[in-house]
User: Which sequence fits this backbone?
């Protein structure tokens, strides 16, 4: 199956990076190479480091962009961005992009086990290594599963679903997405089954987040990206659900916070100054036209921060 991923908020994201022809840029989630290509096409003497943890994505972006002299490709999670960048001779970047979440390819490829729409091995590992979703549903206690489903899926039926999984696996191991989807459907109240959308959606999201440690990696990736930004550089982050967006929003607001002295102090004694400036106060949501053309864009949001200070010039990527 060809790695196809339609980037959301595409033009808004590229414009927000304010790409300079001689700048250094990092795409922390290269995927099918859509954003990476758009960045690379705007470079002359500048360079792009394209990163992705998915081996399928690395093969695809290498085929599509590997011949471009301005592009360097490395496999890894964006939480490892500092090490990957330094290994490539990158000390700082003028712009960094992180497109968070699961790609269209991963969702649409049954073999990857991300979706409840097809019966396939229950996997969900973005890196194709480590503990799978099948490992979690067959080994964790119902209490641990309920906590994952409640925390990462925000599903009020988490306990029902977790107990349903525990009961079903006593008869046989849960090894496919179809098995799990049927168990979830039979575990929730009839009223939930009548609602629009599949009742397994939130549980599948929760398991995917748990399998890949997505929220922890996001926090680490944000810190790594901001530390690599040159003064005047921009970090653009696209999120797809409220848990991700909340983390990005809170972290960017923290970087933009200045003095933390109590309001009754007549003068500032902490000396803290804002490290960044938000480009969009509330972030950008997709247009109605984009949502109509690509329904998966509906929940997406773009947030961009610029690092304070005078810009650096003459970045080099070996």
Assistant:
């Amino acid at each position: 199956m060809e790695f196809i991923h339609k980037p959301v908020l595409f033009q808004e994201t590229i414009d927000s990076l304010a790409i300079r022809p001689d700048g250094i840029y990092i795409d922390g989630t290269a995927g099918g190479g859509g954003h990476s290509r758009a960045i690379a096409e705007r470079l002359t003497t500048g360079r792009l480091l394209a990163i992705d943890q998915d081996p399928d994505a690395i093969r695809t972006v290498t085929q599509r962009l590997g011949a471009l002299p301005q592009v360097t490709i490395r496999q890894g999670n964006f939480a490892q961005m500092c090490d990957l960048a330094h290994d490539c001779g990158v000390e700082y970047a003028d712009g960094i992009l992180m497109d968070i979440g699961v790609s269209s390819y991963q969702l649409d490829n049954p073999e990857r086990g991300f979706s409840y729409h097809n019966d396939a091995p229950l996997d969900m590992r973005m890196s194709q290594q480590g503990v799978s979703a099948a490992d979690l549903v067959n080994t964790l206690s119902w209490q641990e599963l309920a906590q994952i489903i409640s925390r990462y899926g925000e599903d009020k039926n988490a306990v029902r679903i977790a107990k349903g999984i525990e009961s079903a696996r006593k008869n046989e191991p849960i090894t496919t997405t179809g098995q799990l989807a049927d168990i979830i459907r039979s575990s929730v109240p009839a009223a939930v089954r009548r609602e629009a959308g599949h009742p397994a959606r939130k549980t599948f999201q929760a398991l995917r987040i748990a399998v890949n440690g997505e929220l922890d990696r996001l926090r680490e990736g944000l810190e790594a990206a901001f530390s690599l930004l040159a003064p005047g550089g921009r970090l653009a982050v696209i999120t797809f659900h409220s848990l991700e967006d909340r983390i990005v929003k809170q972290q960017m607001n923290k970087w933009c916070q200045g003095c933390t002295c109590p309001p009754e102090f007549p003068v500032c004694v902490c000396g803290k100054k804002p490290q960044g400036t938000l480009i969009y106060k509330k972030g950008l949501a997709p247009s109605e036209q984009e949502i109509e053309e690509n329904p998966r864009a509906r929940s997406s949001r773009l947030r961009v921060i610029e690092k304070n200070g005078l810009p650096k010039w003459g970045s080099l990527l070996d």
Q: What stands out?
A: Residues 214-228 form the longest helix (15 residues). The longest strand covers residues 229-239. Confidence is low (pLDDT under 50) at residues 313-318.
